[in-house]
Each structure stands twice: as structure tokens, then as C-alpha cells.
Amino acid sequence: MPLDLDCYYTPEPVARLVLERACLERVPEVCADSTCGSGRLLDAANEVFGHVQCMGIDRDRRAIAELRRRNPSWILAVGDLLNNRLRRTFASIMPENVDLLILNPPFSLGNKKFVEISYDGHQLTGSVAMAHLLRSFELFAPREGAIAIVPESLLYSETDATARDMLSARHSLQKIADLQNSTFRGARAHASAVQITPNRRQEGKTDDARGYGHVIRTRIVRGGLQVHTMKESRLGTPFIHSVDIRTLVEQQDVSSLRITSNSAKGRVDGWMVLVPRVGKPAKELIQAVDVTETVQLSDCVIALQCTNKATATRLASRIKESWEDFCGIFRGTGAQYVTLLRLKEWLASRSIIEFID
Ligand SMILES: C[S@@+](CC[C@H](N)C(=O)[O-])C[C@H]1O[C@@H](n2cnc3c(N)ncnc32)[C@H](O)[C@@H]1O
Questions:
Q1: Which atom belonging to ligand 1 lies closest to the Cα atom of 81?
Q2: Euclidean distance between the first and final Cα of the chain, in Å?
């Protein structure tokens, strides 16, 4: 490959996960990826949204040739996104309307500190990822905005400050996931998945979407052991059902929990905040707890694991700051319960972002 094209493709599970997290008003029918490479984001769009019309551009001829072979119905083109004549070149094949832009643009600047960007009639500078993002917005004008995997720094760096302000004038930016620096094979980069939504969609909304202010990271673990199948025994793993959260919070100790010989999904340890999945949560029990040995969660308990005490404490406080609102996500005609999706969306609206391994 003559050029460094930054071909660090998005792993399939990550592609699916970030699209699943998107909070869209309607299901997109036409998706475009302006640096589509292997086409994994477009593949994921088909899985997550059902059949969508796909448009992909990439500078890498071989990648586009492979995609053409694999997906004859996709609209595909070889092109340099940063070339200003691109729109004219592709005028005849561009779909009339694109609903959602999805992209994981190149991150690396080589030995440069920034690149020149022309956007909305202005000349500015920014990172190479920002240049691709803004160019893609101009090219496709996506009606529902974009889901982009970008370097974490794009959200706060001085380099991208002007570009960010320009983008934010008409869009809201919401971080929807943190991606570990081991996510991309062969590259070590801290990345974030960001949803960029046209402002018209924010009308009438409350201040729920607070953007990406002071982010708290957590690993969200849903328990998997059904209470009626739980076998108590003398040896095994301490078991936490929703009624045990009080014991643990008040005693800060696992020794009085029941022991089970079962093993199921949802085994956790370390600092965490425990949330009942079923039943109304009690405000005084939303607290940081240090689970000193591995415990088995029942399917009625969700753990919000944190890397340390300070983070777990901040997380508990942030939930309690919006207590009424938090209780509102527990719904149901009989017993009230929260779904994992509702919980994740609510946490993300408070800048509590799920950490992806
Ligand atoms: C990080 S990869 C992402 C590929 C794909 N979207 C994914 O998520 O798997 C970046 C892609 O951008 C392409 N690329 C790099 N510079 C480009 C440019 N100026 N115009 C169009 N594509 C470009 C590369 O060939 C590569 O396929």
C-alpha cells in the first residue's frame, strides 16, 4: 500500500455495539460511510437497523473492489474524501438523501500537527479525523446526523476547538462509548464513539443530554442467576439478590451473604454501585460498595463496576442528583423494572459511559 491509509478496521462487535447505542428518532434507510474500508460499519448498520441502502467511499481501490464483489447492491466509489472535487465527481451516483453517516476516519496526522480544513465557507485547521468528519457532513448532509468513531482528543483538544465549535453550532455531540486503546488491531489509540445529532432534534428536549462534560466510566454487568434455580451450599460464591443490596451496603462486607454453588453470567468484584433491575430502587442504597471477593449476581441485580472508590462514589452521587428522573426509568404495569437499554441510555445522558473491553 503506497499511502498510509490508516486501515485499522472497526471490529465487528464494536461496530454493532456503537450503532445499537445510537439514539435515533427513526430507523435509517440510507447509510453512508465516507471511509468505508472493509465495510464493517455498513454491515453492522444492516444488522442493527434491518436492510439499509449503503453508500461507501474509500481511497483504497482494493478495499472497494472487494466490497463490490461482496455487495453488488451497494453504491461504492473510490475517492479521496478530502479532495474538493469529490461531490462533482460523484454527483451522478450519490443517493438523494442520506439518513445516517457512519464513519471511522483515519486518525494519524503523521508528522503534522494539524491539517487545513474548509467547512461551511470557512478556512480552519484541525485533526485529520475532524477534517474527514466535517467533509463527510458537507458531502452527505445526513438527516439524522452521524455516528463516528473518533480519537478521544477530538472531543476536547485545542487543535479541534474551532472545528468543534462550528460543528456544535448546528449539532449536539454526545459521547456514547469509550473504546479501549486495544480495540483496533495494530493501532493503539484511545477512541470514542460519538453521536452527532442535528439540533432540530433537540427541540423540546430537557437538559438530559449534557454532552460529554465530566465523563464517568463504568462497566455495566447484568446478573444471570435466577433466584429459583440458585442452590445454596457451604462452599461456593457469595450470592447477591436485590434484597441483599441493603446488607452489603450497610455492612460493606460479603461474609453474611448466602453462598451458592451455581455459576452464571454476572460474576463481579471490586468497587461498584449496585442497582436492582426489578422493583423500585432505594436512594440510600445507591452507594459505592467494595466487593472484596467475587460474587454471583442474581438476574434481578445490575452492577455498575468502577475502577476505584472515587469513581464509584461520584457515580452514585450523579445518580442521586437526578433521583426522580432515575426512578422514572423503572416502569411496568405490575412489578416495576428497568431494561438494560433504558439504564444505559439514562446513564449516557448523565455522561456515565459504559467502558467496553
Ligand atoms: C480506520 S479505517 C476505517 C474503515 C472502516 N470504516 C471501518 O470502520 O472498518 C480508515 C479508512 O479510511 C480510508 N481512507 C484514508 N484516507 C482516506 C481519504 N482521504 N479518503 C477516503 N478514504 C480514506 C482508508 O483506506 C481506510 O479504509
A1: 20
A2: 30
